[in-house]
Amino acid sequence: MGKIKKAFSSNMEVTRLLVIMFCWLVFVGIMQGKKFYSFNNFLTMSGQFPEYGLMVLGGMLPMITGGIDLSLVGTANFTSIICVYSAIGLFGAQGSMPIAFTLVFFLLAMLIGTAVGCLNAFLVSKLNVPPILATLGVNELMLGLSIVITGGAAVSDFPKEYCDFFSSNIFGIIPWRVVVFIIMAVVIWFLLEKTTYGTKIRLYGTNSHVATFSGLNTTALLFKTYIISSICAGFGGLMMLATYSSARADYGSNYTMQAILIMVLGGVSPNGGKGKVSGAITAIILLKFIESGINRFRSVSTYYVTLIWGVVLLIALVLDYMSAKPKKVKSSPAAKSAV
Amino acid sequence: MKKRITRLLHSNEPYIFMIIIFLGVLVQIRSGQFFTGNNIVDLLSALIVPGLFALGEFMSLISGGIDVSFPALASLSTYAATKILLDTNYQGNVLLAFVIAMAIGALLGAINGFFVGYLNLNSMIVTLGTSSIFQGIMQGALRANQLSVIPSGMSSFGTTAFISATNKTNGLTSILPYTFLVLIVACVFMFVLLKYTIFGRGIYAIGGNSQSAHAAGFNVKRSKFIMFIIIGMIASAAGVCRTCMMQQMHPTNMLGMEMNIIAGVVLGGVALAGGAGTLTGCILGTFLIVMVQNSMILLGIPTTWSDVFVGAVIVIGVAVSAIQANRKGRIKTSRIINHQKEAA
Amino acid sequence: MKDEKLLLKAEHISISFGNVHALKDVSLAIKPGEIHCLAGENGCGKSTIIKIISGVYQRDSGTIEFDGKTISKITPIDAINLGIQVIYQDFSLFSNLSVAENLALNTEVASGNKFVKWKNVNKIAEEAISKINLNIDLETRVRSLSVAQKQMVAICRALMFNAKLIIMDEPTTALTRKEVDALFEIILKLKKQGIAILFISHKLNEVFEISDRFTIFRNGELVVSGDTKDLDDKKFTYYMTGREFENKTFIPENISKAPIFELKHFSKENAFSDINIQLNGGEILGITGLLDSGRTELALAMFGISPATSGEIIRNGKKVTLKNPREAIENKIAYVPEDRLSEGLFLPRSIADNIIISEIDRLTDKGKFNQNKRNDEVQHWVKEMEVKTDNPENPTTTLSGGNQQKVVLAKWLATKPEVLILNGPTVGVDIGSKHDIHLILQKLANQGMGIIIISDDLPEIIQNCSKVAVIKSGKIVNEYDAQSLDESTIINAMM
Fold first, then answer.
1. CA–CA separation, A337 vs C70, rounded Å?
2. Lesser CB count within 10 Å: N end or C end of chain A?
């Protein structure tokens, strides 16, 4: 029992989410019963999150270092656009693409991610530009380049083999996109929990000054971090491509805020130094449950989802506030003044 | 006087100003159209809404926090106000639109103010959440759709010329609508507020060191609360101005502006960490971004390149700013060893 | 004592926070116009009694009389109105505002006005600085001032409210010798004006130099109060720690044949020039100088944090370039920094994380982080350094200053250095831990390590070093063998 208690208290972020999730699941179970708790429903839910889920996985890392990566969506769209144009260039807009070419897509995503990540890391580590501004500018650049290449329009005429494949399910059950997400989740989890990288970035995020004094290679840390983040974004772009069957400069424009919301909800501190994959995934699942539950209430507009996410975030913050209140200094008036 | 000049050289504002002039000259050379009354009026017109948003964000940054909810706040309050006036078939002066929108804005700002001020939560995260909530209310509860028709009072306010300028070359007339006065009034208000009121100095003090501000007697919680109410009101005014000028109210097209506004304010020398920055810098930085966005045509660059250029300006701007700051500060060895942290 | 009129009479004061009895039945008496020093180790309660006197905390029991009046409950504003002013270590100034604003802000806020009259602000500010004849530009932003100037501004602010008692918390920590002299002059001036000063310090020489009477706390209890003229070194140490210490002087036993660390014509613009040093294994070299002598810049250059502009670093006869701390560590050089709170420790992180972070790459197993190796290392060092904690996964904030410093030392020893540089190794450390750390350093030296101690604590230098170099204005002006040393010789060389 003591061990369970310890697991809960050391994972406060996950715990508070589980509490909210439990309440919601009970509520939805009562209101919707079988309709919610059906295999199909879970399947539908799982299909929708890999895009921003990947951005959450990637974006966590810069946040743990005390920074932030606002260039995720721009990188994602740019990646899908480049991939589409490469397919068009090699196989023609109406042609067909060998499915093995998918590997090239992923390779392109990694290359683009590495390039963008290097740019971000260079600005942040070598020039000391605040991450929020550096990645913001880079995002704008990527968005701009995407607009220039596509002329601002959506590109839907291209060989669809990749999209068809990736929107299908492995063994007919689990969507391929979810498989990609799970693989990346394991990778990021491994990095954070099983390698020294995790400890290093958490300490760096706690105090970058001390990190330098302690001999950490802060430049390498930041480059690694922003590169992984951008590669995840690139993969997210590929997922978006599979889902929408088209590429466009401004898809997923609200994914950035969504991702940040999920990260914070999942226990990644915006000040740096904290963050776990388990927290992030719990947050994603919670929000998905809420979204799906709301979608099933016919009379309730899907836009309420946005509202509820905001409310959940505030609730989580208030919970944090109440549990973290330091032992207040006793200021009782001098009860016995005479001795 | 010499001290004034030295202080000036160390700050950002003169450099931004020079960059603006330099770019202006560049555009003038390329197109011959930059320094025309017509173009200046267009630029000033484009500055109105971002400028108002920037003023609010400026105050937030000074206090040490970032507010990302203002576009959603403005959209909601403006939508609600416009809808109310439309539904009641209002025929009167635009003033009522401002009053209603700003009242709603004050309420919405108070929500931000409660969480950030009284509960002392991280301002960027809270406003991220409230931004979602405001959007959700607008698109969910109010089922907002584009309002293609707006009350006549509003539309005439947004289209009546305060100043107009005609281009001799191509005969085009540009007008600066009366909404520009709203920007002027807001600037004056912000200037007086931050420089001449105790409340305003308190915002600077809080941004500098909120514990010391508390010790000095400032009611930090209440100040932040009131600050967010003011920001909500200014943002709402911006929303009304935009609706008046565009003659329609689209619920979502202001969303997403927050980052560029923040970038503009920071480019103007306002520190992200809080406590430092001037109004002049704020407006200059915002103007720079507006200028880049609106000068594409004159440079013969297709508007699709607009974002690339804005992005480049931001990246280069903050990089230069950071390099400059690095040169000034070396690694300072901490000489004060804070025993306070160790003592019981 | 009983028949003299006292300014402050606090008797039988107790206060607890939860289960912690911060103060147990302590008393403090201050005469008007007296300079009184309150000393004690960290955690002894001296900050707590100040906060009680100044109204930040409310005492649980005991009496306070100030200027003849009995005080029952007191808020910070009450304290100010009574004439009690506290100057904390961080001065509580606004670095982003001007000197004038800093001085006038409290008055302006207290006046209840909504609008700021800048003429008024300047008037108030000018009046304030005239009280101690401070020469400073009122428009300057406080962040551009030196520490000493900031302190002067803080004192001016304290004087604005008819202060009768000014409490200063460790005021000399960041001051150079000259600045300390200037401060003491001001304090004497204030004394002449009839203002009493309560001065918190743990530096014996200051107690002797400036105070009339002293009080010592230990573990929340009053140990002794008395006249400074009755105090001496040994008594002071005994009162502070309750123990008598045999201070062991370092005698090198194991000096290597060749130097393991040398600096040749080591220079850095605007910091230090032409530094030449030779350190053999088994030696402890002391480098001492005033705060602005360049000693810290030299330390940072030796470790690669702000590299020198010319000259050579030689390790075991081979020249090396150190562009960053990592390269220094690769060359088996370690550096215990000046300020453990902002340079040495990841404060909110665990003791364990702090210990292993600099050697973390060694704790891997085919790329994976080996938790067993990690935990072994942690156990080893906690035991070796005698860090007082019941769980090394606790954050370092749960440790006392001395134990925190031991963690920093452990972290660096874990990198198995051959050259260990320490900057102010026992600042803010209780006498017990200080003693322990000195013994550890001497033991390490006798095991063959070359150690450089940079410090302005002369007894520490004389006791622990086999040779001493004095640095002044960026140059080494004198070198001494430990045998031929006494404090006055060094002081003369430093000034």
1. 9
2. N
